[in-house]
Amino acid sequence: MALSAVFSRVSPALLLAGVRRLGSVAITLLGLLALTFAIGRVMPVDPVLSIVGPDADRSTYEQVRAQLGLDQPLSAQFTRYLGELAQGDLGKAMLSGNPVSEDIARVFPATVELATLAIVIGTALGVPLGVWAAARRGRWADHAVRLISLIGHSTPVFWFAMMGLLVFYAWLGWAGGSGRLDLSYDGLVASRTGFLLIDAALAGEWAVWGSALKHITLPATILALHAMAYIARMTRSFMLAQLGQEYILTARVKGLSERAVLWNHAFRNCRVQLLTIVALTYGGLLEGAVLVETVFAWPGFGQYLTSSLMLGDMNAVMGSVLLVGLLFIGLNLLSDLLYQVFDPRTRTQRQ
Questions:
Q1: Domain coordinates in residue numbering, the chain
Q2: Burial annotation 241-271 (CB, 10 A radius, 16+ → b, else e)
Q3: Which of 24, 69, 265, 276 could form a cystine bridge with 335, CB 3.0-4.6 A?
Q4: What is the pTM for the complete model shown?
């Protein structure tokens, strides 16, 4: 469907609701920043010591503390931060000395590449499994899918990551090790998009592309297992609700095949709900890849946030929290918009 056709179906009432949502988004982000800022200031990590070291004299310590603005009241520090944020300045990161915005722009594509491959795999497997389980409710196939979903959703992802490294890298040698590339290929491809698979393909460096694929497959599959478990469970739940409706009985009485009943009727009426599930799961992968990135030494957003927390680098932490909040709110708004655009019932209810 063309974008013009999509936007032509958006009513003025929907646009007004969107403006109201933007106002609530601003309040939500402000509350999130205030809470994170307050927690950061009571953390037992001293950011000044992280810069000057434990052997610095008192005068040096106080000088750096004043330069960071930590000698001011908490309210003044937060007001100053909001003023800089309004100008697009997220501050400088202590870890690298670079602006936080540059650091995030450098590390975030690695996480997006990892999470995107994971959500594609998780959705491609989770949706058919959920439909299959719903169509065979109470049979062995249904129990198997529910067991897989339970294991995938409840088992800690870092345990899967460590077991994956042990089995597929250390024992079998099928997967790449830590990082995004073998060391012999490091630096051979210039970063254009930040997505290594795309950059290697654009440069025609297929050996680098193969190494990048080998390294990303295992962590992406582990993240995908967690996503697949949740998507399969929700798909099964949505499908069971639809299969109990009268129109399904009517379709079967008319002699439609079971495949047509499942995919053309039942799944068609729950696919919009799945948009919200997939969108929020994708946001969770972008934010929750911290443990997987730590285990695989993946140079992404999660590892950057973890290092910043350990150092008490609040500029980097605040910038990362702001990005995570924007991601979740943006994906939620997008899923709501798509829900109302493609489901006529919601538009009728709003009118």
A1: 106-350
A2: ebbeeeebeebeeeeeeeeebbeebbbebbb
A3: 276
A4: 0.82
Single out the residue of 324, 279, 280, 281 nearest to residue 301, CA to CA. 324
Higher per-residue pLDDT: 114 or 158: 114
* CB burial of residue 307 (10 Å; 0-12, 13-18, 19+): middle
Here the tokens at position 300 are: 């992404």
Helices and strands counted in the chain (H then E): 17, 0
Which band of pLDDT confidence, cut at 50, 70 and 90, is reported for residue 11? low
Cα 332 to chain centroid distance, Å, stands at 12
Is the pLDDT score of 1 beyond 50? no
- Residue 106 above 60 pLDDT? yes
CB 306 within 8 A of CB 290: yes
Using DSSP's 3-state secondary structure scheme, residue 288 falls into helix
H or E element, residue 326:
helix 314-342
Residue 197 has, within 13 A of its CA and on its CB side, a CA count of 15
> Residue 73 and residue 162: Cα distance in Å, rounded?
44
Orientation of helix 12-41 relative to helix 314-342, angle to 10°: 160
| Highest averaged pLDDT of the listed ranges 11-20, 85-94, 228-237 | 228-237
Q: Please give the structure tokens belonging to residue 84.
A: 């800089």
Please tell me the predicted confidence (pLDDT) of residue 286.
82
Question: For the structural domain made of 106-350, what CATH number should be given?
Answer: 1.10.3720.10
What does the alpha-carbon distance between residue 88 and residue 67 come to, in Å, rounded to a whole number? 20
pLDDT at 314: 79
Give the pLDDT confidence of 287-321 residue by residue, as tens digits.
767 888 888 988 888 888 888 887 778 788 888 88
Tokens of 147: 């067991």
Q: Which residues are bridge partners to 349 per DSSP?
A: none
Question: Helix (H, G, I), strand (E, B), or coil: what is residue 68?
Answer: coil
Q: Which helix (H) or strand (E) holds 118?
A: helix 100-135
Nearest to 9 by CA among 344, 351, 274: 344
